[in-house]
Each structure stands twice: as C-alpha cells, then as structure tokens.
Amino acid sequence: MDQKKARSLYKSSVRIVKENQHKKGGFYASPPGTRYPYVYARDHSIDVLGAISAGMLKQAKRGLKFMFDAQKPSGEFAQRYDVDGTDRSYKELQIDGNGLILFALGKYIEASGDSDFAKEYWDVIKKGANFILQKKNDEVGLIHTINSIHEYPAYEHGFEIYANAACCGGLKKVADISKVISKKMPEVEKAAKEVAAGINNALWSEKRQSFLKNIRIKDKDSQPLGYDPYSSVVADVDAVLYSPAYFEVVPEDDHKVTRSVRRIHDELWDPELRGLNRYPEYWGRNNGGYGPWCHFTAMLARHYIHLGKRYMADTYLGWVVDVAYKNMLPEHISTVERFELWLEEYSNAKILREDKMVMIEGIKKLAPWKEGLAYVVLPLIWPHAEYIMAYNEYKRKFL
Amino acid sequence: MTKAFLLGVEELEKEFGPDAAEKWMRGIGDQLAEIEGPGVMGEGEPDKLGYFTICLFAPKLNEFVESTGGIPKGHEKILRDVRGPHEGDKAEEVAAVNVCCDMCHAYRKKRALMAGKKNLLHLAAKSKLTGAKEINEAAMKKANVKASDVKKLLKEKDCIFKYV
Questions:
Q1: What is the pTM of this model?
Q2: What is the value of ipTM here, to two decimals?
Q3: How many CB pairs under 8 A join A and B?
Q4: Which of these, A46, A47, A106, A328, has the minimum number of CB atoms within 10 Å of its CB?
Q5: What is the mean pLDDT of residues A382-394?
C-alpha cells in the first residue's frame, strides 16, 4: 500500500466527514446537490463511528443527538431524514438502523465516558431497544426486517444477517450502558443473547462453512415459521456475512467468521477491477454497472487487520487508496462496458427511473469515464468513515 | 387484509352513507399519522412541487377492482362525496380520483403539521385505472404554482401536491 497516499486519503476523509455534517448534527449521505443529500440512519451511524475513530467526539455526540431527537413515536429510527430531522423515508422498515444507532451510541460512551448523555436520553434509548424487541421472533430467536443494508427486500425480507448482527450489537451496547448508569433492563441482555444464538445457529451453515444471508419470512409472527408463504433460505454470498464480527457479536478469529470471510473473498473479489463486490452479479440490481464497493472493501480490510494479516490488509485497504479520485471515494466503481450492460438491461426492462438519469450524467462527467471507468456517486461519505476506522486500526497494528 | 379493508369501506357506506364513510377514512388517516409521527412524503421537491409517480394506493386498489370486477358502488359514492361541492375554502379540498385519496391526504397532512409545516395542498391527481383526472385550481392559486407546470407534471405522475 502506498503509505503516503494512504495518509493523504485519511486526512481528506476526516475533512470530508467533518464538512458533511450539517450544523444541526445530521451527516449527509452525499454532499448537498448530489445524489443523496439526506441523513440516512445507516450511513449516518457509520459516519458517527468514523467520527469516534478520528477522535471527533463532539461531532459524534451531535450526530447521535440529531438522531435521538428525530426518533419516531414507535421507537423506530427512520430510513432517512432531512437536515431538520423530519422523516423523509420512502422505503419500508429497515430495522438495522435502530441497531446501528444504539451500537454507535455504545461506542461513543466507551470512547468518551460520557454516561450522562445516556442518562439524558435513556427514554429514547429504551424505546429504540424495545422497537427491536418487538420485531423479534421467539421461535428462531432472530429479528425480522423488510429491508437491510442493500435496501433490497427480494433478498433481505426476513431474518437477515446484517440487520440481526447490527441489532444484536446495539442491544449488547444498551445492556452495557444500562449497567453503567444503573438502569434495569434485563430483557435487553436476554434478547441480545438469544439473537446471538440465532445468528450462530440458524444463520450458520456447517456444511457450507459460511454464515447465511437470510431466512426469508414474510410475516414476523408466522408460527410455525415453516408455514410462512416466503419460507426459504438465501444462502448466496454477501459482503455482510462478515457483519457478526463487525458488530462484535462473534469474535474476529472465530472459525465462522474466518470461513465466511474466505468465502466472501473467493466469490466477491473482483478479478478485473480488484476490490470487493457487495453481492453476486446475478442478483440483478447493479445500478451504474456491477463492480466493487469502497466501504465493503474497507470493512473487510478491518478483519485482516484485526487478525494481523498484513498482506491481505494491504491488498484491501490499498485498493481503496488506489481507487480514490482526488482523495474522494465513490460508492462503487465499474467499467464502461459493465455500465452499458446495466443501462441496456434497465432500459429494455423499463425500470430506469429518472433519478438514475441524474446519476448517469454524473458518472459520465467524471474524468475516470474517459479511462473506461464508471465512478458511481462521488463522494459518498460512508466509505470515508469506514476508511477512517480501517486506517486507524491499520496504523495501530502495523505502523 | 387489503381486500377485507376495501370491502369494509363498501359495507360501511352501505350501512351509514358516504359522509360517515368519508369521515371514518379521514379518521384512519389521522390515526395512522399519530402512529407514524412527523414526516414529509413524496418525490421531487415537496416544498415547491412534490409528487408521487405512482399513487401509494393505486397498485392494491387496481388489483382489488380487477378481482371484484369493477369499482364498488359504495366507493364511487364516497368519491363523489369527497369531490363535493363543499362549503369553505376550495383550495383545501382533495383532488380525489380514488376512494383512498381523502384518507391519504389526511394522513400526509397531519404528519406534515406535526413536522411544523403549515399546510398540504393537493393540486392534482389522476387514476391510471379509470383515466379520471382532478385538478384543484384554487389550491394551485393558493400554493402559488403555475397551472401549466402542474398539468405538464400530471402527464407523468399520479399525484401532485405542495407542502407550505
């Protein structure tokens, strides 16, 4: 990995994360005037984690406060908000948002020792945790969702792994916080253990030696689950099969994690562009063309860093460094050829929405296009936050 | 569940008349808003000109109408009732093209008020199923938007509105 470029990208990433926090506390998913000028609970939580890693605790606290003040009456944190904290969601339930915010809160308290903040917002925290518990199915011990990290119900509606890992991680943090501030919430600790067991049992395949993406179930309360109209298993590979380690539910060196990561590398590392794809091409939703994603590549780099595997850590993080354009990271990259393939398929299928036309114009305007590469959404803030975390861990481990 | 609800609307109208059914559906919209909390919905720029490319209820309503062989008489009566004429400010009326428009508007308006908006004006709507179009000229005037912009947009979109 080019260390000079890596340091330079780190500095830019810190600046980009900082600059893209609105004065009211929300982190834009992408800067105003670009594709995602809203505060998405998922991206925002990762940005808070990035801020914590960079030592920007004031910014992290403002980010958490923004989200807590915007909580819905049900306890849910919405898919997305505008900068004033008004719900601007357009998709159905994404329960991982609740898990993520609570996980980020836990990380903030660990880094700052600011337990007064948790006391101040205890009712909100409790409500956020209770909302997750409402979505838990006791037969399998897992949390039900409609959307998860890819906002793709066809593969995520049910008991999905990222949503469950995020929620389990979040519940564990709430249980820890409750002890620190002497509040009783034993049901949260119990549920966290049950979800962890569900991940380790129902979402693990011994024969495949891999975590599983999803147990498709239409209705959370179908009992018995086998009679639910969707009941099936999605065993396809997905970069987020790594998420049980990311959210500290399963240790990094557990064979379930190492075997799943091996599978992710074998099946999702892009042979042409290098970098990590998020899911198999045949899932068929490859906006802007199929290709590797910066934040998933940075996320998996952390696994290799934790295990001290320098060569793989350099390969993954080095790719992120190499792919940066003017020290900015895109959501993902593709080739012009793959881009054209996607465009043809979506046009012929009549599913090319007008917002995609804006995205297409943006891709073609960028300099990499002339070199045969499609840079999709530049910059996206999430990969910068993910890079901050990975780089700091890399530095601590290897430099 | 959707089919049961829409048949229930028909039954309610039969039993109590269109006025009561309309009021009942608006009440549902209000209660849904209470559960969901503050929020602004729609594509485009809802503070200038917002829209839904596909009506939130159209796919399920159309499926229902196809399965029952036509729009139930009770639904038509409720729709006529929503369209008026009414006393009061015409700009506040709903440009309704299906039986759920009034409920949807009540829901979205209440969420908007909770979010600190002053009003939600329903400017126009169309039904792809029946071809019906409704344009609220008074609402457009109150919203200070050009009728030509709304009419142009209506060719592509199902529902057009503005949060003020």
A1: 0.93
A2: 0.81
A3: 31
A4: A328
A5: 98
